[in-house]
User: Fold these one by one.
Assistant:
Number 1:
Amino acid sequence: MSAVKGKNTRIELAIRKTVHHEGFRYSLHNKSLPGKPDLALKKYGVAVFVNGCFWHGHSCRKGKRPTSNKNFWDVKLERNVKRDRDNTKQLKKLGWEVVTIWECEIEKGARKLVRKLNHKKKRLQELPKQDNHPKPEKLGS
Ligand SMILES: [Zn+2]
């Protein structure tokens, strides 16, 4: 599906840049994960797919199917949608949280993703702190 990937590259790069800029590290197209997520942030358990609206059947204007050769496109695109669904299901089973960012909502999607990651980061930072620093002895006891 190199044509599909090629279409996504520009969006994918924009997302990568934003996520990287915020200080998060990720692996790209991790082959050991279902669907080879575009970005996988192991530390946070978040897998990200950057989807082109047409190829992945988004319910927006760009995701509209062609009216000519209808059968051909229906079969082809439904296969993509089903594959996405299956990959999401498998990833969730493995404990990953799946984030899909659509081509038509890159900025909104990137913002949401960064907010989610920052939230998780904060929680991760808070947890070990409580364990590593025992409470001071109670005064007067
Ligand atoms: Zn869309």
Number 2:
Amino acid sequence: MSTRAQGERPSLTAEVRSGTWRSWGGNVSAEPAVTVRPEDSDQVLQVLAEAAAAGLTVRPAGSGHSWSPVVPTEDVLLDTSALSGLVSVDTERQLVTVFAGTTLHELSRLLEEHGLAVANLPDSGHMTVAGAVATGMHGTGLGQPSMAEQVTAMSIATPSGELVSCSETHRPDLLRAARVHLGVLGVVVSVTLQCVSSFRLHCAEFREPLAGLVDGMQERMSGADHFEFSWMPGTSMAHTRILSRLHRLPQDYTRPASPISRALRRADDAVLRTSLTAGLGRVGSLLPRTVNGLNRLESMALSSRRYTDVSYRAFTTARPVRYVCSEYALPLESTADAFRELRDLVDRKGYDLSFPVTVRCSPPDRGLLSPAAGRYTGWIALRQYGRRPHEGFFRAAEEIFAAHGGRPHWGTVHTRTAADLAPQYPGWDEFLALRTELDPQGLLLNAHTRELLGV
Ligand SMILES: Cc1cc2nc3c(=O)[nH]c(=O)nc-3n(C[C@H](O)[C@H](O)[C@H](O)COP(=O)(O)OP(=O)(O)OC[C@H]3O[C@@H](n4cnc5c(N)ncnc54)[C@H](O)[C@@H]3O)c2cc1C
């Protein structure tokens, strides 16, 4: 749609200094002509109208925590960081409305003040609420909903100049589509979430032999509130993480955790589980053939431990080391077979991988384009240190995942396009029809989303 003449520089409402935009992983960047940082829905609508009049496209950006090029634009980058904070709290029904650019960390802290929490979270808290919802972000646990499933209403600024609301009773068709919206239906201004009473989690982490773990994967997933495991390529061991939801106890017992144990855990995270990974990643990038040997060393360093903490602190871990990630959502019953084939591939090809492969699970989602739409899902995430090559491994693994009916996580690296994706989503045509209704001119599309959706 962009009709901007070369070199011409439009001026828009809420414009801020523009520069190179980079994703957290560093693998995606953009040089937008204009960056805007609107502070309310009126300014968002104004920007959309001005961009349309100038023949420019607009891409909203959250925290840039996606590894796929869902954000980049050469036209208008809409920074959502000023659309932040609580809109309203209904403590009785545990319904909370927040501005779309609120990060999950901020959200959790705000909810804690009201005795509330989000039922399930990913392993990082830096992404924004709208960004997380856009790509179908998940945590782990077969009985616990993903972020998009917890959404009960949204308010969306559309290219036609309207602020459209949708909920389970008003425009439920739009809510179904907007649960995983890819940033192509409009600019999300606020999101209402069904929260739960605040809770604590007990976390138990163990080193276990990989073989038995993979054979009993479904049972282990069904037997825990939140279960995941990570396998270090080059080893036959895995690191399991089991989170159990604790009952609410009298005030004396519900201190989040003893400060000493939390301080020790943070030190352990920072020194053993993160700096060691970083250090080994750097050594590995100098001496590639040694990486799997280094993985054996790291795998030994990750010892068993147990601790209790408030839910959002236990769900998330610090991630000071940048990496690139590809993750696939597989039918739960195919996940163990896909993992075995992946392991054979790594052993056969001898890829040097400096980060573990992680396996998680989630229940079916209702979002039309949720990778977990309509089925219990096993997620397999591949990671590689940012400065090391990942393309060959990710591509070969993708063939395995695709053969098992896998759907890519929209925010991670993959090579699927509309032709591969459309047959995998029963709600595909319904989503495309709604997108056309809300944005007939394609104001919100970039090259990547055009390719993904075939428009
Ligand atoms: C360290 C790390 C850990 C991660 N852990 C997990 C995990 O445990 N589980 C998981 O599923 N994923 C995980 N991810 C992936 C991440 O959650 C998703 O890619 C998520 O979409 C990123 O959110 P964001 O706020 O950074 O959005 P961005 O990456 O900035 O944008 C994502 C999409 O949202 C759209 N968007 C953002 N704001 C708006 C808005 N207000 N209105 C309309 N569209 C909008 C953008 O246009 C884009 O299409 C992780 C990523 C990192 C870097």
Number 3:
Amino acid sequence: MRIPATLQHYTVPATVLSDSREMLRERGLKGLEAVVVWVGNVVDDTTARITAAVSPGQIAYRSDAGCAVEVPPEALSELIEILPDDVFVLARLHTHPTEAYHSDVDDTNMLISHHGAISIVVPYFARDALKLARCSVNELRHGTGWVELTAAEVSRRFTVL
Ligand SMILES: [Zn+2]
């Protein structure tokens, strides 16, 4: 089974949002950006069910030039290896020290690269409760690149349970 290119709708348990925020914030309190991925099942051609937030192995950098974080390829492989065959990495989240936007570096980061992959940027090191409306939610469209979803699209496409 593969991830359908037609996914439109995601259900996200509230506990996944709070778990994600805890993991992101823990590193943020040290002044470091952090990455969390959302894994889940495909329900049908248009719907996926997020089941858990996972913190992959990652390296954060901090310098005068700013912050960055990356997941080494081997850390991603390790994560994918332990996932059951019907569980996929559907979204990636990472924090920024200030505003949420998809930077040029974020655009070239192919941690996940399937058509329809979701990349969420969480502002202010996740200091506040994680609400998608406060984040930059981006979708990867093959041939176009990462496209930021509008607030209306985010509320239509993500259902928090
Ligand atoms: Zn970024």
Number 4:
Amino acid sequence: MMTTSDDENEPDNMTGGEGHVAVDWKLLQKISTIKPQQQKAERDKTIVCTADHNTSKSSAAEVHHDNQLFSLPPKSEDCPTCGLILPQLESGKRYQPCCGKLVCSGCLSEAVLAAAPALPNCPYCKTPAPRTAKEALRRTKKRVDANHYPALVYLGGIYHDGLYGMPRDYKKALQLWMRAGKLGCTKAYNNVGYAYWHGHGVKRNKNKARHYYELAVMGGDVNARCNLAEFEELQGNMNMSLKHHMIAVRGGEDGSLSKIREYYKNGYATKHDYAKALQCYQSYLDEVKSNQRDKATNILGDDFRSY
Ligand SMILES: [Zn+2]
Ligand SMILES: [Zn+2]
């Protein structure tokens, strides 16, 4: 059955920035040493995955807007250490304020397990991990001062969630995300959309939320596309919603795969759509899976899950 309530079905999948999940260093120190292994995944598969549904448009401007909205996103960024694409799941990657890189949880877990019970070095630049929250913040703010937009998004997430002993401050979070968005960070615009949707640091405004989700989608953000799909569903625009989900599943959004299955059961998607979605999601998994990432989840738990 299609969900009609905002509360039950909200487009509120916040990216959380570039590796917004903070590392629980104390927990990691307790973990014993195990030699991780690394495995390369196949990288040459590209399956174009869009729904075969058309939506009639009344003007050239709308057609142009939709062309931008439904163009296939660029390929995901690679982990700078292992070279595999970074997982879509936020728990599958971490921002490193030392060098400003996003590294995958597989590589981070390797460093953690090798260094345990001591704190690990950054898997990329080998800088020792910050010993205190104050040091982690100092490194992040130094990058923020240099307008490094992943740092802006990351610090915004810290303010939004009140991490590292900081008081929760939605307005500061929103300011940082807007600044990052203006610098070209599409992920930041997804978080701005989230803030407008929930009224975090700003008056709640669903149209503005949609606007910022769209900006993020046009830049290739998968979380924002999933949010937009949910938004369209709430408006009853099931074809538009399906089209977004079909692209999001290609980028590894498992929530979109569940939605397409639900749409198929309820007659909003065809069997062909669902089969195509399954194929696209499997193709994503083939690219992103590795023994190292599996081991990270098995040993360190869901905080290190990549898929
Ligand atoms: Zn990696
Ligand atoms: Zn580093």
